[in-house]
From TrEMBL:
Family to which the UniProt record says this protein belongs: Belongs to the malic enzymes family.
Keyword Ribosomal protein: no
Signal peptide residue numbers: none
Binding residue positions for a divalent metal cation: E240, D241, D264
Domain Malic enzyme NAD-binding residue range list: 265-516
Record text on cofactor binding: Divalent metal cations. Prefers magnesium or manganese.
The protein's required cofactors: Mg(2+); Mn(2+)
Segments forming domain Malic enzyme N-terminal: 75-255
Protein's UniProt name: Malate dehydrogenase (Oxaloacetate-decarboxylating)(NADP+)
Domain of life: Bacteria
Catalytic residues of the enzyme: Y98, K169
Residues passing through the membrane, by range: none
Length: 542
């Protein structure tokens, strides 16, 4: 990259390009060649020392949001130092660049704003989207992460403030799975926002209008999707944090047409399936014998239910039997056949039972062995709920995936304490380890970042025509297979984040194998897939 571009650039231009800037690490010869002499302090440093300085500085910033701001600034000065820093300690930095701190960064987006990132697509660009996409300087875009901001994490509609999410998601493609950063493009698809408080905030940076109606959104999306095909023909579209019904509709419309996926539906489903598989390995049980209860039936909840059902079918259950092992409960109560407000994703799980709006009563009727909270209802899993779950299973599995932290259905400490140490627990954010009666419990983080960076890496190397649900099922099992007996002993449902790159490579390797076996891959099959992947990884170095 550097060799190709330096001939045209010199002096301050070089220093202001984060992808080629080495700052104080430019050698004497480079300083002479690039007309950098005098523009840098005389000391010549190496990357390790630059990273040490960053770590020292970060250590002095107590507030996590300000650590986030510092890191984003760093990325815009020197991409290599940024990724070297993040990849040196992923467990520490994932929660800062991503959930939960990114939630705070999104809420305050207009207030902490420094420089533009990615692309903003607005309604007035209708008819001109190819032109606008061509404004992006990188021509070989391989992934676009696009959000409307219509449902950011558990925060609801925050419009253009949602840009923090595609930025953060794509950073994790690189930080977790070493996908080269240059082909990653965050997009905020600004259809307006229903958030009046934001529209009245003088610092709000998006379109100050109510959201477009569904028909207009569909038309605008269609133009955007086709423009992406034309301008970036090798691009995979990653849909993120669109409003639930829109998310489901877009995925259904485009999944067989273009290379795309929805992380909230398929990525989240895959990671929960991975956690369930990990938990079942601990218990020595199989999925087809479980009863799975969903608290929250939006795009995440129904996406997980669909994948759980698909897996039950592969284990030999019939359609009806699989449906009967899954139940859902949303803000309006138990999803049952007398309800007439259900969407197509919820309908298969509406059983012929008596309606109740009481969660504990619904649990008593259904007797689940696994509960998945994707409700954004903070504290929805009360002590009574957890104690009730313990009546149906010695080791109930509890997934409380609503995020950020202040939206979680219950904390790890609550799950372990109320279940007297019996629960197998994971949340959408990482809770600290918890000791109860001398036993250490290690809660998992059931977050889609175990999945989508690996799917991204697999897609980057194998260039599949399409991504199907099977890719996400394969990824889920690859993650679950990484839990060794010692980790099982501590109740771990997910691999450790210390070694996230290794985990994502293992997952990507399995997904790539599947892509070749199923004929999805569009490149020649290499002799050794893992080796071949390793040869294409991004490494932060000069
Ligand atoms: O970003 C995360 O942490 C998980 C996610 O996709 C969401 O909550 O929408
Ligand atoms: Mg999301």
């Amino acid at each position: 990259m550097f060799e190709q571009t330096t001939s045209a650039l010199s002096g301050r231009q070089v220093l202001s390009r984060a992808d080629i800037n080495k700052g104080t690490a430019f050698s004497i010869a480079e300083r002479q060649d690039l007309h950098l002499e005098g523009l840098l302090p005389p000391s010549i440093e190496d990357l390790d020392l630059q990273v040490k300085r960053v770590l020292e500085h970060l250590g002095e910033i107590k507030d996590e949001l300000h650590q986030y701001v510092y890191l984003i600034d760093l990325e815009e000065r020197n991409q290599t130092v940024f990724y070297k820093t993040i990849m040196s300690d992923p467990k520490r930095f994932i929660p800062i660049l991503y959930d939960p701190v990114v939630a705070d960064a999104c809420l305050k987006f207009g207030h902490i704003y420094r420089r533009p990132r990615g692309l903003y697509i607005t309604r007035d660009m209708k008819g001109r989207m190819t032109e606008v996409l061509r404004n992006w300087p990188e021509k070989d875009v391989r992934f676009i992460c696009v959000t409307t901001g219509g449902r950011i994490l558990g925060l609801g509609d925050i419009g253009a403030n949602g840009m923090g999410i595609p930025v953060g998601k794509l950073q994790l493609y690189t930080a977790c799975a070493a996908v080269p950063p240059e082909g990653l493009l965050p997009v905020l698809f600004d259809i307006g926002t229903s958030n009046e408080q934001l529209r009245n905030d003088p610092y709000y940076l998006g379109t100050r209008e109510a959201p477009l109606g569904e028909e207009d959104v569909d038309e605008l999306t269609e133009e955007f999707v086709q423009a992406v095909q034309e301008v970036f023909p090798n691009c995979c579209l990653h849909f993120e944090d669109w409003k639930g019904t829109q998310a489901i509709r877009m995925l259904n419309r485009y999944k067989d047409q273009i290379l795309c996926y929805n992380d909230d539906i398929q990525g989240t489903a895959s990671v929960v399936l991975a956690g369930i598989a990990g938990g079942l390995n601990i218990k020595g049980e199989v999925l087809k014998d479980q009863r799975v209860f969903f608290y929250g039936a939006g795009s995440a909840g129904t996406g997980i239910a669909k994948l759980v059902k698909a897996e039950m079918l592969t284990q030999g259950l019939g359609e009806e039997e699989a449906n009967s092992r899954i139940a859902m409960f949303d803000v309006d109560g138990l999803i049952c056949s007398t309800r007439n407000d259900l969407n197509e994703a919820q309908a298969p799980f509406a059983h012929n039972v008596e309606y109740t709006s009481d969660l504990v009563e619904a649990l008593r009727m259904f007797k689940p062995t696994i509960i998945v909270g994707a409700s954004t209802h903070a504290g929805g899993f009360t002590q009574e709920v957890v104690e009730t779950l313990c009546e149906f299973s010695d080791q109930p599995m509890i997934f409380a995936i609503s995020n950020p932290t202040f939206k979680v259905e219950c904390t790890a400490e609550q799950a372990y304490t109320w279940s007297k140490g019996q629960a197998l627990f994971a949340a959408g954010v990482q809770f600290p380890d918890f000791e109860l009666n001398g036993k250490l419990h290690r809660p998992g983080q059931a977050n889609n970042f175990y999945i989508y960076p690996a799917i991204g890496l697999a897609t980057y190397v194998a260039k599949p025509k399409r991504l199907n649900d099977e890719c996400f099922i394969v990824a889920a099992h690859a993650v679950a297979d990484q839990i060794n007996p010692e980790m099982r002993e501590q109740g771990m449902l997910f691999p450790s984040q210390d070694n996230i790159l290794e985990s994502e490579i293992q997952t990507a390797t399995k997904v790539v194998e599947y892509m070749f076996d199923s004929g999805l891959a569009q490149v020649e099959r290499p002799a050794d897939i893992r080796d071949w992947i390793e040869g294409q990884l991004y490494t932060p170095k000069y």
